[in-house]
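Today's session is about reading a structure prediction critically. Students often jump straight to the picture, but the first step is always the sequence itself: look for stretches that repeat, for charged clusters, for runs of hydrophobic residues. Only then move on to the predicted structure, which in these notes is written as discrete structure tokens rather than atom positions. Here is the chain we will use throughout the hour.
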Amino acid sequence: MRKLIIVLPIALLLLTACNKSKVETLERQLREKDKQITQLEDQLEHLQFTNSSLLDRMSDLSVVNKEGAASIRESLENINQQYAFIEDLTTKIQQKDSLNLALVMNLKRSLSDINDDDVKVEVRGGKVHVSISDRLLFRSGSHRVTEEAETVLGKVAMVLNDHRDLDVMVEGHTDDVPIGNSCIKDNWDLSVKRATAVVRILEEEHYVAPERLIAAGRSEFLPIAENSSSGGRSLNRRTEIVITPRLDQFFELLEAPELAN
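Below is the predicted structure for this chain, in token form.
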């Protein structure tokens, strides 16, 4: 019985020590778990921050890409408009050149029986020029059109009336020999009167629309030869019928398209 009494406290001490050890082990494991939880929470917070940053960067990149795409699209539209404008302008210039060629051919065919020294047809500066010598059109110092010249003007008018969308400028030119009498003040006056006389023939006798006609005097200041010889002065005394596109149509050709902002 006494032995039993002695053994029992020892057993209780051993049991208490064992339980204490288990508690300490559990407490240590719990602390480690808490530490792991804290680490995991820190990692989660870092991952959330990183994810938010990435989302913000992706959002910024999306905006940049949209703005860049819009800018590129706008630039391409402007390039396409410019290309279309240049292509259209080239086409119209080719059409004008073709029209000039057709005009020259028609005029030369119509005037084939006229002496080449008296009438010349050519393209200069993108315009068709019909140059008629004054010895065919007028008597010396006069601004009255000869009967022979009226026939020539009639043939020119037939071609002009086939192309009603073209303007016609009639230019009077003289040599540098001064002139002055009771009817003609000077070479300016003579060149203008001669141009006006031709315009009246085209309008009144051959029905060229007057709104298409322009009368201009150039006097002696646009010579095509030297005035030092009689032959040169003869060449300079001329009347030129200059056939041009309508000015409003010409300026329309030069109008660039409105570009995108």
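Discussion point for the tutorial: Residues 2-110 form the longest helix (109 residues).
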